Amino acid sequence: INMGISRDNWHKRRATGGKKKAIRKKRKYELGRPPANTKLGQKRIHAVRTRGGNRKFRALRLDHGNFSWGSESITRKTRVMDVVYNASNNELVRTKTLVKNCIVQVDSNPFRQWYESHYATPLGRKKGAKLTEAEEAELNKKRSKHQEKKMEARKATGKTTPGLDEQFVTGRLYACISSRPGQSGRCDGYILEGKELEFYVKKIRAKKSK
User: What residues contact residue 209 under an 8 Å CB cut-off, 6+ apart?
Assistant: First the structure.
């Protein structure tokens, strides 16, 4: 049998432990390909021709992606800054490999800018920190009475959770990748909130304390 990655099952043993006879050679439809091992870095994507003339996009390096903020129902393109946790393998954290469901840190600026323009409220500022003139002008710009009323109504509901507030101060948000970079060539995901955020923060702290 020629060497190569194969997804067949006739080379494996039976549940009873007996060997199966190889009744044919490997087939094209049973092939497998090497993993992409997408790294954090300047974008590099290779197109791979697949069965039926279709294409997969093998991301070899990525540093940006679309991340959604679920509770606010918005999505922004932002920079992926670091890989901090992977449930399957710590080696993938050390080598900064991007795979589905790994936990990364993304730049919070696009989300902070949207929040401040939407709610006209500063977000992620250290206590006592002064806003720049440009930021002051953006928050306190002249609005019509209708707009002012709308902003007041928004402010009543625009509260972020304490866990997210702390992250906005640092300028980085924990997010989970939900796309498959080695298949789609994209690194998209969602910002962690609520119980899921608590769970992963606990895991990351436990890993650091070892």
Answer: none
The string of DSSP codes covering 191-204 is E--HHHHHHHHHHH
Identity of the amino acid at 37: N
In the three-class reduction of DSSP (H, G, I as helix; E, B as strand; rest coil), residue 6 is classed as strand
Q: Count CB atoms within 10 A of the CB of residue 87.
A: 11
Residue 112, token pair as written in the block: 């902070």
Q: Provide DSSP, 100-128.
A: TT-EEEEE-HHHHHHHHHHH----S--TT
Sign of CA dihedral 110, 111, 117, 123: negative
What's the rounded mean pLDDT across residues 183-207?
Answer: 94
What SS3 state is found at 60? strand
| Residue the block writes with tokens 């606010």 | 72
**In terms of DSSP bridges, do strands 55-62 and 64-69 run parallel, antiparallel, or are they unpaired?**
unpaired
- DSSP, res 7: -
pTM: 0.86
